[in-house]
Structures are given as C-alpha cells and as structure tokens.
Amino acid sequence: MVRRGADGFALGWLGALLCAGLAAVAWGPLGCSARWEPAPDCGRQGDTCSEHGDCCSFGCIAGSCACAPAGMACHTDAACCSGARCESGHCRPGCRAAGAECARDGDCCDGLACEAGRCGEPRCNRADEPCSDDGACCEGLTCLPSSDGSSSFGTCSSSCAAQGESCRDGVACCNGLVCNSATCVQACRQREQGCSDEAPCCAGLECAEGSCRACADVGFSCSAAGDCCGALDCVDERCACKAPGESCARPDDCCTGGCFDGICACHQTGGACQRADDCCDGWACRNGTCEPDACFRSGHVCAVASDCCGGVCADEACCAAEGKDCSDKDDCCSGLVCHRETGCGPCGAIGTSCVFGDECCDGACYLGQCCGGAQAACDAARPCCYGLECGASGRCCSRSGACDEGADCCDGFECKGGSCVVAPGGPCDGSFDCPAPMSCISGRCCQDRLTACTLDTQCCSGRCHLNECQ
After folding, report:
1. pTM (2 decimals)?
2. pLDDT band per the 50, 70, 90 thresholds, residue 431
3. How many whole angstroms separate alpha carbon 36 and alpha carbon 310?
4. Could you state, in order of their start, the residue ranges of all structural domains in the chain?
C-alpha cells in the first residue's frame, strides 16, 4: 500500500514502520529524517491519521495510529502497546505507574486506572472528559462517540435517554443502558464480566458466582455438565433436566419444575404448590395445595379422553390440549409447546412472554421474552436477542457470546472454545481487543511482521511466507 504525503513524495508504510522503530528519526521525502513531534490533539491507537504527528502513539501506519511492541523505540509511554512502558527510549514489558500516560485501564499497574490519559486512582470520568465506554463515565453520563467516527474514544456527556425512553434518531442511552429495539434498556453483561440481578448476562450466558459464563439450556449441545446452565445434566451430548431426588440450584433445573432445599422433588397431598408442576404425577394443585387427582397426567396409558387431565387421549397415551397445565413440551399434544405460565399452546412469536427457549418459535428466551437466537431469521420486525445482532445474511449472530459452531458467529468472527472471537482479518474498532497475537490495524485484526502464521489473511501485510508474516 502506497500513499502520497503533502510533500508529494511516495510514502510506503513499510518505510514508515522502519523509521518509526528508530529513536530519533521519521520518514521524510528523502527517507528517514528528524523525529516528528505529536500535535497537542494527537490521536490514540486505532484512530485515523495522515502523518506521524497526528498520533500520540508510535506513528501513523497505513492510515491508522499504531502502537510500538516491546523492543521498539519510543518517546513516551503512549507510544507503546498495552502491557509495555517506555524506558530508556525503548518499549519494555510491564505495567505503568501513577502519572504515566495510558490509553486504557489495562495499561496501568494493579490498583490504578487510566484517568484522562494518565494512570492514577480509579475515578469516573466527568462531563466532556474522554472515555472508551459508558462504564468510564460518572453516573448520569454516557460515552458519546466522536462525531466524525475518526476516533475509537468518545466524550462523557449528559445528553442521554433514561431507561424506557426512546433512542431513535441517534439519541444515546444513559450510563448502564443500551438501545434495543429503539428503547433504552438495562445493558446485559458479556462473558467474564461481573453480573447481578440488576446487571443480567447477555443471551447464551448465565451469572455464576458473580461472573457471566457461557452456558447451554435444556436441549442444547454439551460435552460435560459444566457446559449447561444452572445444575442441568449433560445426557447424550444434550443438556437435560434432572429427575426427582437429584440435586438442583433452581426450579428450572428439575424436570418436575420444583427445586426444594436443593433437591428436585414433587409434592404429594398437603404439599404447598403454585402450579401443577410442583405436585407429583396423579396430584393436582388446588388453592395452593397438592391434592389427589382423578385423572392421569400426560404420557400415562389411556382408553378415552376422560381418563386424561389434559383432555386428550391420542395413540393410547394422555396428552395436554391447548390451555392445559404442563411441565415440558412432551406433556403437550402434537403441534403444541409447553408455556410454563399459561399451559400448552402454539409456540411463542418474538416479543411474547416465556420461561424457556423451547416455548418460542425461534427457540430463544431472554429476560422473559421470546427473541431471535443464533442463526434465527431476523429483520426490523424480528429482532435478535440482546447480545446478538442481525447479520448481513439476515440471520442472528454473535460477536462475543457462546457458540456451538461457526455459523453462530457474525461475519469476520469464528467459534473457538465455545465463544465467538474475531477471526484473522476480522473487524475491530477499539471497543474490544483482538485475540493475541493480533493487533487492531486500520479496522481489522491482523498480525505484525515476523510473527508466526499459516495464512496470508493473518498478516497485516497480507503475506505469510515460510510461516512468518512479512
């Protein structure tokens, strides 16, 4: 790639990179010349640029401010990549002490945070101060992106919409909220982020010991019980509910729908109940108490419809008709699904209430509503679950959530270790880091020269020769 600078001479990015690596020189019309000085409003790593002076960091490489890896020359801490600091004119591995320049919290030593471009005691950013995301801003403020899109950093602002308010026409939601279906809602938490009842995890994740982890619900694929949500079992490579007598963490872990003192169970005569699922087979929930029922539950052998509590005897087995109580989809007659709150009925369209994903036509339930899960068809009228997005192919996909296969992830991303991650050559904008050993250069994740490779697409230069980026 070649561009022409203001001096009219051809500028190759490889030449710029070579000069940028020398402590006192920069690329000029006749080759390497005197080192540039960053402008007062210089850009951070990942910002667009046209010359080295536009960047606080290492230099302008291929139209994007780049950082210097360990071992390369530097003039300030800001020139070095995350995990390195500038010592004696070269980037050295290590965290940055109080007062040192920084771009993100991870640049600073433990107990410090990047505040207004310097490592210091953690505090929220005030109005008009730079920010990388909403979490950096004080309460009541939100991080508005740069107006021209040239920077990955924004500015903390009070011009935001509160929870439940409209976020149409570019209106930003306040700190801790996100725009979903044109309305500001509570932001979900991504994989390994902290979580609570007030800060729920995104679709495909569960809150375990205060941290979001990928999990699979009933019916989804698994290799071990730990892959499944809550205390579900992994049976025949599918997450399954537990039988009476087995341990549980929540009612949804149990096939009976009842978890009492950590054990899946059903109640017989006199036991307290809220729904038929709490009572054992052959008992019904009447006025909050389990009582013997004169009819048979779904699956029991029958001769006539009157034998069955669900009102239908099909193929000599009871099943539940529309509107009848159920505990799972197998209780309902053919063509119906089990809605835990309302009984058997047609599958739920996007936006209808739900408890489990198998109640929904698209197989996904998030925060009590049916939504489009991974690979579900999507458009303006059929939004994806929060944490997913409607990809270019018209299918819901994820950039960082749980996945079973590559098709669950958006274009430019791949499924690794059960999570979607950026693939070599995939997009980046500074809002998330590229997986090591890649860096975010000119809006895509790629590897610097001299790093190990197997494909041309892994390299920023686009050329992998003898298993090394050129």
Report:
1. 0.37
2. very low
3. 80
4. 2-93, 124-186, 424-469
